[in-house]
Specification:
Blueprint: E1 3-5, E2 9-10, E3 19-26, E4 32-41, E5 51-61, E6 70-77, E7 82-90, E8 97-104, E9 110-115, E10 120-122, E11 127-132, E12 137-142, E13 147-153, E14 158-163, E15 169-174, E16 179-184, E17 189-190, E18 195-196, E19 201-206, E20 212-217, E21 222-227, E22 232-233, E23 238-239, E24 244-249, E25 255-260, E26 265-270, E27 275-281, E28 286-291, E29 297-302, E30 307-312, E31 317-318, E32 323-324, E33 329-334, E34 340-345, E35 350-355, E36 360-367, E37 372-377, E38 383-388, E39 393-398, E40 403-409, E41 414-419
Antiparallel strand pairs: 1-7, 1-10, 2-7, 3-6, 3-8, 4-5, 4-7, 8-9, 11-12, 11-41, 12-13, 14-15, 15-16, 16-17, 16-18, 19-20, 20-21, 21-22, 21-23, 24-25, 25-26, 26-27, 28-29, 29-30, 30-31, 30-32, 33-34, 34-35, 35-36, 37-38, 38-39, 39-40
């Protein structure tokens, strides 16, 4: 999903631009979807998101030489000291869109013209949020450029992060202060005070409709539920079993699966009633749960057994034999295309790759560094980001070559990590 950004256009001198026209055209044989976004600079805000978007337009372009292969957005107000234009393209024809930006003054005289070659091209407009367990912070990275853009102070010992499908909020489980912090991802600022939950909140998941957040309280043996409209806990904590750790919610939002470390089991919560409807025996010391995009299977890392169990979410029973992986598997992510699961093996300092289609090991070991912990995948399935706890870095893995292609510096003992969804707005 290429993003073309004009960058900040200085407009303090004479002649001053008062309006702009943006023309986009499809030069290829396949359709494309385009979003044109105009923004001005908010001088009161710092960080990457000090931009206020005041005009957003979304439309489709047909292939070249068909009707509607070109779209022109004319005479958009731009009488600001600093402004900019961003064009986001997607679809099969995303790489065949030509762009012309024209700035005019109050007399409708042309001040400047730019084409797509003069825009900065970013392959993805995505951001990674990574918590530092020791520093009590969350780092925000622009993963188009793999640069740090913001650092936020949150609660004590932030263990994990969840970002909903809307991408507008990030929820952080603060295991040391028994609370959840809420981040506005459009401004990278905290919303209100931390939300009190149970003892040692350790893992967190958001329902697909983004209306509720489920938090495992490891020392209280419960799960708390947060209403995202009010950012308050609703109902009593849900008793689930001993030492709940990882949690994941099915794509249809009907069930939450909770790993119970000391019970060697997974509890299933009905989100309609917020009660446990099943408890499924798995391997020893289950840690993290990941669910396939189609919702058919849940994968659970068993730290002591060095295996991954697979659960049929229709019958809520284990299917097949446990899959052998590395030493002390913890984090697991299934990439969005549903083909592979990546497992972080803490004590063997590597990742194992599982073929989700037949539940066999595809790659036994990808060396990544000391104590790989949790994992997040990009929405296009091309890369995964892995927190490497003992080295204060985040490794970037290419999912085609299954090799390390980059490293980001992080806070001390990076733990939770999540990536924003692809959004044209």
């Amino acid at each position: 999903m290429p993003v073309f950004d004009s960058g900040l256009i200085e407009n303090r001198t004479t002649p001053r631009t008062t309006n702009v026209t943006i023309r986009v055209s499809n030069s290829g044989r396949t359709p494309a979807v385009v979003s044109i976004q105009l923004y001005r600079l908010d001088t009161a805000t710092t960080g990457f998101n000090n931009r206020i978007y005041y005009s957003v337009n979304l439309f489709s372009l047909n292939p070249q030489n068909l009707s509607n292969d070109t779209y022109t957005l004319e005479n958009v107000y731009a009488d600001f000291d600093v402004f900019g234009v961003r064009v986001v393209t997607s679809g099969i024809g995303e790489n065949n869109v030509a762009i012309t930006l024209t700035g005019k003054n109050a007399q409708n005289e042309v001040i400047f013209t730019r084409t797509e070659g003069e825009f900065t091209r970013i392959e993805e407009l995505l951001f990674a949020y990574a918590s530092s367990f020791i520093d009590n912070t969350v780092n925000v990275y622009d993963i188009g450029t793999n640069t740090l853009v913001s650092t936020l102070s949150v609660g004590d010992a932030p263990a994990s992060i969840a970002i909903g499908k809307s991408g507008r909020r990030a929820y952080v489980a603060n295991s040391g202060s028994d609370s959840v912090s809420v981040i506005d991802t459009s401004t990278n600022t905290l919303i209100g005070s931390p939300i009190p939950v149970g003892d040692t909140p350790i893992s967190i998941a958001i329902t697909p409709d983004t209306t509720r957040v489920y938090v495992t309280n490891q020392s209280a043996d419960t799960v708390s539920v947060i209403n995202t409209s009010t950012n308050t806990v609703i109902g009593p904590p849900i008793p689930v079993g001993t030492t709940p750790f990882g949690i994941a919610i099915t794509p249809d939002g009907s069930k939450a699966y909770v790993a119970l470390q000391r019970d060697n089991a997974v509890a299933v919560i009905s989100t309609a009633t917020n009660t446990v409807t099943a408890t499924i025996p798995v391997g020893a010391n289950p840690n993290i749960v990941a669910i396939t995009p189609n919702g058919n299977k849940a994968y659970v890392t068993n730290a002591t057994d060095e295996t991954v169990s697979v659960i049929d979410t229709t019958t809520d029973s284990v299917i097949g034999l446990p899959i052998p992986v590395g030493i002390k598997p913890t984090g697991i992510v299934i990439i969005p295309d549903g083909t592979k699961a990546y497992v972080a093996n803490q004590d063997s300092n590597n990742l194992t790759v599982i073929n989700v289609l037949n539940d066999t090991v595809m790659v036994r070991s990808i060396p990544v560094g000391e104590v790989p912990f949790l994992i997040a995948a990009t929405p296009d399935s091309s890369k995964i980001y892995v927190s490497i706890a003992n080295q204060a870095v985040i490794r970037i893995i290419d999912t085609v070559s299954n090799s390390v292609v980059g490293t980001l510096g992080s806070g001390t003992f990076p733990s939770g990590i999540q990536i924003t969804p692809i959004l044209l707005f």
